[in-house]
Queue: 2 jobs
Job 1
Amino acid sequence: MAGAITIKNLTKRYGSFAAVDDVSITIPEGHFVSLLGPSGCGKTTTLRMLAGFVPPDEGEIAVDGAVVSRPGHVQAAEDRQMGMVFQSYAVWPHMTVFDNVAYPLRFGEKKVSDKGELRRRVDGAIELVGLSGQQAKFPNALSGGQQQRVALARALIAEPRILLLDEPLSNLDAKLRESMRFELRSLQRRLGITTVFVTHSQEEALLLSDMVVVMRSGKVIEQNDPETLYRSPRTDFVADFIGLANFFDGPIVSEAGGRISMQTPAGLLTASGTAGASGAKLMIRPESITLTSAGETRPDFENQLPGRVDDVFFNGNIVEYMVSVEGLQEKKLRVQGFPPRRFSAGEVVSIGFSADDAKILEVA
Ligand SMILES: Nc1ncnc2c1ncn2[C@@H]1O[C@H](COP(=O)(O)OP(=O)(O)OP(=O)(O)O)[C@@H](O)[C@H]1O
């Protein structure tokens, strides 16, 4: 077993402010885990504690069962066998690609003195990240994406058991960022290296991860696999942060057999789930709503509301609608439709969705 991480009740305070507040995460060996959340939620501080740069005030971090961080005991970063890549391309401008990648083997804990072996391993790492033939170039002759690959090769060269990535794609342009994502994930899968990835891009977190940890104000709000987080979030915060969501408020009037009815300003709606103690919202995703012409009945939908299309936005494979609903004053529903069926602005419609797709969520 190599690279399994257990984070238990981890807390880091700056003065009286808890940047990381009682965080517990279990990461199995070989998994790709994203720490996701708005700016300032404590993602980077958690990663820095994992790396050994920041000592915790409470709790502990263990790797493969051995504690590497706890108050009063922090194993040095260089002894942790972790590779790191950061947002800024931390490659040395005065060194060639080869020398950048070779650095950890020349000066690190895992020094390699045999010249032939050094060359073989450096060339191997450079090939791994798709930079074969670029060994003699200096970083300023490379694109941003290529520089990030150099940083990645350097992080991997010492064969770490864990890879820590702090927004490594965020300085790349959109197109490159999109292709690098898939490369990063396929490389991680091939190597089977446990990876912790900090991002505020929900799209990246969903695409890449075995598990996503959603944080806010230093706390973990939810952690789960991407599909469960998207389809069945527990909280309104996660539903809103991951993907698009429409919410309804109101008192719950009945609960039986996994079905909950909520009296909303738009009428009585039925959803699935269980009502928590801390207040509830009804959530429906834009793609789970079907618009039909007014008067067209759809008995398969438990929920049907009259509405009017206010705005239509064509977005290639989907059409986005802003729909006002009788009884909901300010708020508009976001609905995603699929061509060729099109509604136009001003059209009176019926808004339908099933109770299975509508979820009752805790207010976090
Ligand atoms: N050395 C420090 N001294 C004081 N406060 C700090 C320090 N490091 C981080 N913080 C505070 O802790 C909180 C969490 O910071 P952190 O960098 O972990 O957030 P983040 O989720 O990574 O945010 P971002 O996405 O903006 O990088 C922030 O409010 C930050 O200002």
Job 2
Amino acid sequence: MALAGGVRVRARALLRAGAQFRGPVLGRPEPAAGGGDGTRRFANLRVLVEPDPAAGVAVMKLKSPPVNSLSLEFMTEFLISLEKLENDKAFRGVVITSDCPGVFSAGLDLTELCGQNPAHYAEYWKAVQELWLRLFLSNMVLVAAINGVCPAGGCLMALTCDVRVLADNPKFVIGLKETQLGIVVPFWLKDNLVNTIGHRASEHALQLGLLFPPAEALQVGIVDQVVPEDQLQSTALSVMARWMAIPDHARHLTKAMMRKATADSLIKHRDADIQNFVNFISRDSIQKTLQVYLQKLKQKKG
Ligand SMILES: CC/C=C\C/C=C\CCCC/C=C/C(=O)SCCNC(=O)CCNC(=O)[C@H](O)C(C)(C)COP(=O)(O)OP(=O)(O)OC[C@H]1O[C@@H](n2cnc3c(N)ncnc32)[C@H](O)[C@@H]1OP(=O)(O)O
């Protein structure tokens, strides 16, 4: 699936501005881009990709400090990296994890949702839809190695994955807390949750805006495994190895079959969903609530 129009334009702008794959990452000298040794890492500004072509797997590390919030730039860069892996036949699986200590992703970037104009909200929501669709319909096996708090839009990303492994730390809660912020999850994210944990559990989780700590997350089924923090990466890779043992075409066709109806319901109503979002987020009452919330977050330290 190709990037949607607005996101593609922004992607091109980012690439022109230099957000392409580059050699040295984390201060380590590496072969020049295109060196072809098959082992080097590559990165744009906010996503670090560690490829292991021999295993057919890449680890994507979200590194948009402080909290990996889903800004337009971050989502665009993420999708560029994902598309690059999708287009490279060497890669059949991706582990998604965070490079920001204690936070997988804080979800939608609240500064993108506050005090902007309708055109911006429309562009932003289109990018959120695109992020979800591209992950949800990915040909590759996606394993989320959740090494931090994972609320709302962070959970959205994790829910698109085939498997979620959560590090066992009571601070690492996961869930769709939207109602606590006075906002409502879109129907397609609700469907994604229902497909994952069932209808009744979703009703409770969504209405109450529940954030599940590890043991509860496992019990309700929003994650598949909880492991000690120091075993997260190795567990994610061994889960991946199990999935990689299945012939790709059969696995992928099965995944597509299982997910088609849920994805189609958004694909058929993308414009209406954008309009709905713009109308909702532009309301004075919603703007006020989000601004107060953002201010509270900012004052936390002070
Ligand atoms: C069609 C449908 C119609 C309508 C639907 C409308 C909307 C639906 C959207 C549904 C999908 C998803 C929604 C969302 O994702 S909303 C965002 C929800 N996220 C949160 O509530 C998390 C908020 N953040 C936190 O709780 C903490 O920051 C966190 C992640 C626990 C980390 O804590 P800590 O390490 O202590 O870090 P700080 O809190 O000090 O934060 C550091 C820094 O980051 C800023 N920040 C945090 N979160 C966000 C964010 N989500 N967006 C933007 N900025 C964020 C924070 O303000 C601090 O900034 P500073 O300048 O002070 O450094």
